[in-house]
TrEMBL record:
InterPro entries: TPR-like_helical_dom_sf (IPR011990), TPR_rpt (IPR019734), Ycf3/AcsC/BcsC/TPR_MFPF (IPR051685)
Domain of life: Bacteria
Spans of repeat TPR: 39-72, 73-106, 141-174
This protein's UniProt keywords: Repeat, TPR repeat
Name this protein carries in UniProt: Tetratricopeptide repeat protein
Residues annotated as signal peptide: none
Length: 335
């Protein structure tokens, strides 16, 4: 019986790694019919349910393991991940802390603990666990990413950039590290350097909409508006939020003084639902076409919907300063 269970376990594990979850589940259930106390099968089923995002079912399988083997490390590790999926970081951390009691040197668990603490806003405690993980395994990309994210939250872009660049150097899949580093460079208006990193991302992941958007935004910053439009169109093809992408394309057309094309792009964005920035773009088109009453009508609607919005108030003020005569003739919503 034991040999049969081991053989079936290997088959189930192989199927799980191949992503054949239903077939793997059938094998694990077969193992339980042979040996109802197989913690290997119970952990395997918990892992399958977790991968299927059925976190509550996963928790139940892991808990069944503890009735048989109180300190099964794999069950505690999976339990922590399942609670994380349920959004219960306190229970997740409790499970991971127990994992560290069982295996004090496990750097992956240290990183999980650090991630959980970071999400709870305990940044100093989080950093301590990230550095503990790096002391065990200096090339842990998740620990380096976490430290980079903390540095960004604390306003230290230089340190964040250093961590993200290290992730990009060591990771088999450097997309996240490269994108994060590029985003910082874009924020600093180092557009050419940022574009170089976004293009590296696109060599690994040609359909990465975040990289296409970042590249487009940099091209706009360099006033290369036709190229920016082209990049945003590709970003839209690969899943970028359509209203945001179309609005940015409209903004670029305004910069090119292609007002009809800008208006068409904004209207297409608005046809998908209310979007403040598309309406702001429409108001600019009306103003550029010397239709200030139409521009003010749009801004008045926005002021009504988004009372207290500073950007809308500023745009309204600029328009009234340029066309003071329209204030009396155009009905305004209250601010």
């Amino acid at each position: 019986m034991e040999r049969n269970v081991v053989s079936l376990g290997k088959i189930a594990h192989k199927l799980k790694r191949e992503g054949k979850l239903r077939e793997a589940e059938e094998i694990y259930m077969q193992i339980l019919r042979i040996d109802s106390d197989s913690v290997y099968a119970l952990v395997g089923l918990g892992d399958l349910k977790r991968r299927a995002r059925r976190f509550e079912d996963a928790v139940e399988y892991y808990k069944r393991c503890f009735e048989i083997e109180r300190n099964n490390w794999y069950a505690f590790a999976g339990l922590g991940d399942a609670y994380r999926g349920l959004g219960d970081l306190d229970k997740a951390l409790k499970a991971w802390y127990h994992c560290l009691k069982l295996r004090p040197a496990d750097h992956k668990t240290m990183t999980r603990v650090a991630d959980g603490l970071r999400k709870k806003g305990k940044l100093d405690d989080s950093k301590e666990f990230y550095f503990m993980a790096l002391a065990k395994y200096p090339l842990d990309p998740y620990a380096l990413m976490g430290l980079g994210q903390i540095a960004m939250e604390q306003g230290d872009d230089d340190e964040a950039l250093d961590f993200f660049e290290r992730v990009a150097e060591i990771s088999d899949n450097p997309v996240i590290g490269l994108t994060s580093a590029a985003n910082i460079l874009r924020k600093r208006k180092a557009f050419k350097k940022a574009i170089a990193l976004y293009e590296k991302v696109l060599r690994f992941a040609p359909g990465n909409s975040h990289a296409w958007h970042g590249k487009a935004d940099c091209l706009r910053g360099l006033k290369q508006f036709p190229s920016a439009i082209e990049a945003w169109e590709i970003a839209l093809e690969h899943g970028m939020d359509k209203r945001a992408g179309l609005t940015r394309i409209g903004d670029s057309y305004i910069s090119l003084n292609e007002l009809d094309l800008a208006e068409a792009s904004y209207k297409k964005a608005i046809s998908m639902g209310y979007y403040k920035y598309a309406y702001l773009g429409i108001s600019k088109v009306h103003a550029r076409k010397d239709h200030p009453h139409k521009a003010l009508e749009v801004l008045s609607m926005l002021r009504h919907r988004e009372s207290g919005d500073q950007r809308i108030s500023e745009e309204s003020g600029k328009l009234l300063e340029r066309y003071p005569e329209i204030a009396q003739s155009t009905p305004l919503y209250p601010n």
